[in-house]
Design goal:
Largest sheet: 7 strands, parallel
Shape: globular
Number of strands: 26
Strand content: 15-25%
Number of helices: 20
Strand order of the largest sheet: 3-8-2-17-18-1-19
Structural class: alpha/beta
Amino acid sequence: MKFQLCSKYKPTGDQPQAIEQLVKGILAGEPAQTLLGVTGSGKTFTMANVIARVEKPTLILSHNKTLAAQLYSEFKSFFPDNSVQYFVSYYDYYQPEAYIPSSDKYIEKDLMINDEIERLRLSTVSALLSGRKDVVVVSSVSCLYGMGNPDDFDANVIKIHTGQKVTRNFFLRQLVASLYSRNEVEAARGTFRVKGDTVEIRLAYEDILVRVSFWGDEIESIKTIHPDDGVSLGNHDIFQIYPANLFVTSPERMGTAIGQIEVDLGRQYDDFFHVGKELEAKRLLERVTYDVEMLREVGHCSGIENYSRYFDGRQPGMRPFCLLDYFPNDFLTIIDESHVTLPQCRAMFGGDLSRKMNLVDYGFRLEAALDNRPLKFEEFEKLTPQVLYVSATPADYELQRSEGVVVEQIIRPTGLLDPVIEVRPSLNQIDDLLEEINIRIERGERTLVTTLTKRMAEELNEYLLKLQINTAYIHSDVDTLDRIKILDGLRAGVYDVLIGVNLLREGLDLPEVSLVAILDADKEGFLRNHRSLTQTVGRAARNLNGTVIMYADKITDSMQQTIDETQRRRTKQLAYNEEHGITPTAIIKARNAIVGFDTDFEMDDTPVKQGRTAAGHRPSTSKHEKKREAVPYVQEYTKQVHLAADPVMEYMNIESLRKLIDRRRVDMMKAAKEMNFIEAAQIRDEIIAMEDRCNAMENNQPGQ
């Protein structure tokens, strides 16, 4: 089926010429092009028009999950009748296996898997292997990490049709081979149950129950049913059931893999002994032998991904399979915010290799673990024959690959101008910021504040909450889907202020934001270089009253470049508006639910100062190896009361405080020893506050 672009808007401003140039280049076979589009100029709409015109399966690569979710939502609205998929890392929490030789510290792998994101990943792979050409995949850089062999996945697809001659038991064995498990109690995803001659399969990649009815050794009917209410979704003559996991293999390949693992174990064991590493040799023998026994008995073991080379049938040093291998040969890659996304792609291999080398050198893993890795950047380039780089601040690499030819998109369809930039002294910057925030609250507008560290973001959040300002913070420690709820809460008016470090830069579509405040703008570095500042400034470009305040004691080169570039764009935008008689108008954009979750908020009179957040809108319970309460991260921290500020301490004497300090110091050392450095730092701060109180109490004692 062809792409059907649905939108009430037509390309305007710079968009028509940008679309025409990009489509012409793609159809001519140009390997790389760059779209320089300012914030609010409709880059996503331009991308959608290009996709609809060139008619190719498309991978849209984003540098973080939050932006990927936003793009997924937008492309779902642009292509409601086509297959738009979402592919990001399915870990809510992930602690990779590691070994630190200096302290002889081994860290076991620990993780939490999000069920909903895992379903979306399976849906992506199923769509790509279905043969459809109208597929758009919005992905984070996790698509460059190793996955199962696409040939094995495709070989385990179960194809059935009415009238097919097949026994029920053979069909059940096919389901088990595709990693579906039998469950007669609960129809969970990836399970099936049997009732006489009827088999019901809860698909792992869609919210659908498939009911297959047999008449003897023949399939009589195939029906799809809604799993919750049992409503029939239709009858089917032909149906394909895709595997319940991305990593599937055949019994024959399993036997071959185990044999090769044992051969490599013997070789590496001998190598350790020849160089006098008896401890490493013994450690490797015990670990791999146990893993092999688990593979023989249950077909799985902890850390099975480290043996992926054997199951994939790859030779040593060969790159792993990844999502790009599931695409057809002729597909388009769009790299959104390329100035940030590409450096991530480059860095992944090196970081993974340094960690794995320690595990191999000290006998924790076979050398084959090194082949379970993300792609090298050169491998990624070879797998993406046609690339479109999209950024408001493209880097040198993109310009070089595009041979200096850049398609500019500076004019906004709404006539909005780039925001006005003000530079104010950092002295009393919080008091000044507070005054500006209150002005925006009175006008019903929102404010973004960017800080240099997570700690600064959290402390500023606490301070504003005490002043009864509806606020929240967002950074990398906040769960992926919770970030989405927070951003939607900002748009809905649950929050008036959102504080962040580095996640409030690229791509966020927040037309309600009229003020962006950049604290410590003159602290040169990654977070305050020219590209970072330009991207941050762009967050205020979707509002009629868009203003940016840089708090700084001097104007750095990066600040000056940002100010000059913004002024250049404003001049061009003003000239275009005057020439065409355009009056700037505010963007009115619907809040779309993202990745299938409802993000509507009930607006009541609950005081946000008590930490009201998007509670109750957390995704469905995740299956994971480490249990955790399903409470939004922001709520945990906005309600958290530090021990040093506890009212009970008002009634403690010096002796009791000293004892408490000693106990907390023991807790701090224990946390540090267990490498829980965040917890240790929090306890340290509590101890400092308690010691200050002790000193104050001693100084105020009579007779002192």
